[in-house]
Amino acid sequence: MSQTDAGWGAGPSGRYDALAARFRPIFSEIRATAVARDAGRTLPHAEIGWLKEAGFTTLRLDPSDGGHGAGLPELFNLLIELSQADSNVTNALRAHFGFTEDVLSSASPEWRARWIARIAAGETVGSGVSETGPAKVGQFDTVVRRRGEDWVVDGRKFYTTGSLFADWIHLSAQDESGAPVIAAVPTRTPGVAIDDDWDGFGQALTASGTARFTGVVLSADLIKPETVRFPYAMAFFQLVHLATLAGIGRAAAEDVTRLVQARTRVYSHGNAGRTADDPQILAVVGRVRSNAYAAGAIVLKAAEAVQRAYEAVRAGGRDAAEPATAIADVEINQAVTVVTNLVLEATTALFDALGASAVKEEHGLDRHWRNARTLTSHNPRIYRERSVGEFAVSGTRPPREYRVGTA
């Protein structure tokens, strides 16, 4: 069934459904076991493997480089569909897609060519940016030191989402003088240890735990020539979260519809002999679905702004892309609170259409709210509206980076 026929609106391109058709059977398989995996804390190694084999992780590469040439609106729409199946899998691949953008936007032909080849070969990348130690805002405790022609990494990262499933870790650190360093670290090299110790109540299957680096030796070609990330990185990474939320909303809509269709018990003070005919119940189902629809539509509109930023970078470089990048940040910030509220409401309201049996673990309906609430705790939304207001009133552009640390 096409996205249009399913009532979610037209896809972002005329070819979208043909592109998505390759992956929808895999999304369906992932969806079929999502509740059981969540209940048993079974990490999605196999599921991510299926996506890699199908070429999902190469979406953004040109066909001539072994990819699918997907535009950013197409990518984000596919992430909505994947998140409808299991939002954990999307979050586990977030760093990989961000690293791919970094490669595509790199000013270094050698770095770009080397990593396009690796991504085309099916290699994936996890996150090694955030820390929970005492480092101050804008600094890292993880240090990369020169040793002859090589480099040596020592440190500890947390929120290393997806690294346990990946071939590489995209590492942000600093050298001995405090200057920033970006590197790619093989996950299966001596001195690297990755722990699945994330204990959050949501997004539990993303392996967002600890990565430790002890005397890890890197060759010089694994140190990125540029010390900054791609210009539209903040917009991109936040929009992955919003696409994931929109997918959670669709999953909630799908679940409440299915359970209302199957429900045979009614209340004496209800409005019909069948739950599926009760107008108040139908209104709840409609509200959940409408919230999911609106969230997805907002994500696709914001994705157009990120696509314009990408095109500006490719056409004129980082400095020339500054206006388009700033507007992309504004559009994503405008979307954050709205999409968040829509999905948090949808994942709560769905229970109003069902009875007490809906809270049974076999249905796993609580995971929708838990996953949504966990995602919305990243890069707190309370600061986004203020940033939008500052832009509207004084023209102040959003900050280029959001960093966390001690004051």
TrEMBL record:
Residues 29-123 form the Acyl-CoA dehydrogenase/oxidase N-terminal domain. Residues 136-215 form the Acyl-CoA oxidase/dehydrogenase middle domain. One of its GO terms (molecular function) is monooxygenase activity. InterPro entries: Acyl-CoA_dehydrogenase, Acyl-CoA_DH_C, Acyl-CoA_Oxase/DH_mid-dom, Acyl-CoA_Oxase/DH_mid-dom_sf, AcylCo_DH-like_C, AcylCoA_DH/ox_N, AcylCoA_DH/ox_N_sf, AcylCoA_DH/oxidase_NM_dom_sf. The keyword Flavoprotein applies. It comes from the Bacteria. It holds the Pfam family Acyl-CoA_dh_2. Keywords: Flavoprotein, Monooxygenase, Oxidoreductase. Signal peptide: none annotated. Residues 240-378 form the Acyl-CoA dehydrogenase C-terminal domain. Belongs to the HpaH/HsaA monooxygenase family. This is FMNH2-dependent monooxygenase SfnC. The gene is sfnC.
